[in-house]
Amino acid sequence: MPRMNAILRFRYVAPVAVVLTSLATAQIEPAGQQTITPPVSYASLSQVSSLLATLEQQSQAAQLDLAKLRIDRWKTDSNNKKQTQSNVESVSRNLHDALPGIIGEVRAAPESLVSTFKLYRNLDALYDVFGSVVESTGAFGSKDEFQLLANDLASIEGSRRSFADRMETLAGSKEVELTKLRSQIHTAQQASVPSGSPKKVVVDDTEAPKKSAKKAVPKPPLVTAPKPTAGSPKAQ
Predict the structure, then answer these.
(1) Which of 83, 194, 197, 234 has the greatest number of C-beta atoms within 10 Å?
(2) Which pLDDT value is given to residue 102?
(3) Is domain 51-173 classified as CATH 1.10.10?
(4) pLDDT value at position 69?
(5) Which residues, other chains included, contact 54 with Cβ-Cβ below 8 Å and sequence gap of 6+?
(6) Which residue has the higher pLDDT, 91 or 32?
(7) Is residue 60 predicted with pLDDT exceeding 80?
(8) CB-based burial, 61-98: b 16+ in 10 Å, e otherwise
(9) What average pLDDT is seen over the chain?
(10) Considering all CA atoms of the chain, what is the largest pairwise distance in Å, rounded to the nearest integer?
């Protein structure tokens, strides 16, 4: 039974986690464009309203039946009594304090995948602890106590499965919306790029360094032999 529950949880939670991650990373809009939330269909609104009303009735019935338990009269040791009493208080707090707020979130946003997943996760945790209480009641409590709580647990399990199915439907719908969104973004990006983009002309406006003029090297003066003067001896 626990293994089957784990398989069911993986079957429904894994695809939803993928979709939630995709939606969180892909909701990019062109500048100046606002998101328009599509209206909720009558069939979807009617379905979620019926599921939530049924869950509220189940919660009230479970709280009343839990209050009728007489754990102090059970023929078992004090440790089992304390553990069961702690589980009963945990389930009662969830049904009275946490669950109504989550139901309100789903009622306010019937097609919100995040709110629906939050409700399913809460029902999943509630089912596990409630199941432990029912098991202990069957072992140590009266037959009437066990029968009432077993019926409550079966009802909560039915709601959990119903919201799991709805969550799977919403995940498929969000997948379609995500595909359309990606297509729109791709089309907008293609339209923003001009077809004939002009070629870039690079102008080199840097001046080339001027070549330094070579200085003329002065030639050495010519040395001429002095003319012989009168009275000077002639060369031999």
Answers:
(1) 83
(2) 97
(3) no
(4) 96
(5) 159
(6) 91
(7) yes
(8) bbeebbeebebeebeeeeeebeebeebbebbeebbeee
(9) 79
(10) 168
Q: How far apart are CA 234 and CA 11, in angstroms?
A: 133
Give the pLDDT confidence score for residue 221 in this predicted structure.
Answer: 61
pLDDT of residue 222: 59
First to last CA, the chain: 144
Domain boundaries, the chain: 51-173
Cα–Cα dist 196/2, whole Å: 64
Question: In terms of pTM, does the model score above 0.85?
Answer: no
Mean pLDDT across 73-78: 93
Cα 114 to Cα 117, 128, 159, 166, 205, distances in angstroms: 5, 22, 17, 12, 60
Instruction: Show the DSSP H helices in the chain as ranges.
Output: 2-26, 42-67, 78-93, 99-108, 113-140, 143-192
CA atoms 149, 152, 158, 161: torsion sign: negative
d(CA 135, CA 214): 109
